[in-house]
Amino acid sequence: MMTTKKTRMSMLDGLASPAQSTTPTPDTPMMSTNRALRSARDAVDSHQVWELDPDSIEDGRIADRLDPDDVVDLRHSIEANGQTVPILVRRHPSVPDRYLLVYGHRRLQAIRDSYRVKTVRALIANLDEDAAVRAQISENTARRDLSFIERALFAQDLVQSGFGNQMQVAEVLNVTRSSISMAITIAEQIGRDLIRTIGAAHGIGRPRWEALGKAIETHHMDRDQLIKIAGAIRNEATVACVVEGVRFDPNELSVQIFDAVMATTDVPQNSPKPAKTPRAVNRKQSADLTVNGKTAGKIVRSPKGVSLDLEKGPFADWIEAQSQDLIEELHARWLQRRED
Question: What's the number of domains the chain is made of?
Answer without folding.
Answer: 2
